[in-house]
Amino acid sequence: MTTRAPQGRTRSGAADLQVGRPGVVWALPAALFFGLFALLPMVLVLVLSFTQWSGLGSPEFVGTENWSRLLDDPVMLKSIGLSLVLTALGVVTQTPVAMLLGVWAAGHQWNRAVLSAIFFVPLLLSAAAVSVLWRAVLDPNFGVPAQMEWLFGDGNLFGNQSTAIAVLVFVSLWQFTPLHALIYQGAAKAVPPMLYEAAEIDGAGRVRSFFAITLPQLRNTMITSVILMVVGGLTTFDTVLILTNGGPGTDTTITAFYMYQKAFRGFDFGLASAIAVVLVVAATAISLVMVRLSGYDKMRSELEGV
């Protein structure tokens, strides 16, 4: 005895009935968490930016006074420029290194897996621990520069702006490149092998295959990685605090560190809140511009037509 499916009910229609979008209720826990720990603090910081508060007592409403002070503050304007410079240098140095290491680590040889595990060790360390480590290594009195004066001169890499910025860029490169290399490694493993097989049949070598196949397939991954670098670069703080403390003078005082100085050294939480709002708006705006200009928001599959 056989049974027939109801008329008008196709196999695809049955599958559509079985698989559907989850209800709104499933999103409530995540939405509640995001609202309490992200949106609400941002709203409170925005409100606090229009007040004067030392951390004690009640905030006093002062209107746009804090914002006027920011516009007339040369250190604030300088810190924005430094933040952009450090962020740009971080993207320029970390992106090619992370991409090449990630593509290399995507190979199947056992030695690549071992070396990748060793290289990813910095991911296990906090930014504070990494900063303390490199501060000791680069100490002008007892560190490597003091023992190699023929290469580092007087050995005080933190004594002028150019070398201090170079140290910050290098330490960020050492710490965060493994994270982005891991992202590229996962994306490179997802590239269909048939593309490389076809390229090999056509006589393409490794370099040609990388630029013709691997690089285009990593386009969306690169955009994601760069956005993470930009947001991280604009909001970095502990590395500057431990390595240079904003010095020499204010030559490495980036915006996030300046916010810390105003809040926890100057006890001017109203002005610090205004700086925090500027950081959030700048990071969000730059990320949205990158997404829109790159076409990443369309999220077209790179495997279309394969």
Automatic annotation (TrEMBL):
Matching SUPFAM superfamilies: MetI-like
Domain ABC transmembrane type-1: 80-290
InterPro entries assigned to the protein according to its UniProt record, in alphabetical order: ABC_transporter_permease (IPR051393), MetI-like (IPR000515), MetI-like_sf (IPR035906)
Compartments where located: Cell membrane
Chief place of localization: membrane
Transmembrane segments: 24-50, 80-106, 113-137, 157-176, 222-243, 269-291
Presence of the UniProt keyword Disulfide bond in the record: no
Domain of life: Bacteria
Keywords for this protein: Cell membrane, Membrane, Transmembrane, Transmembrane helix, Transport
Pfam families assigned: BPD_transp_1
Topology relative to the membrane: Multi-pass membrane protein
Family to which the UniProt record says this protein belongs: Belongs to the binding-protein-dependent transport system permease family.
This protein's name: L-arabinose transport system permease protein AraP
Organism, scientific name: Oerskovia enterophila
Gene: araP_2
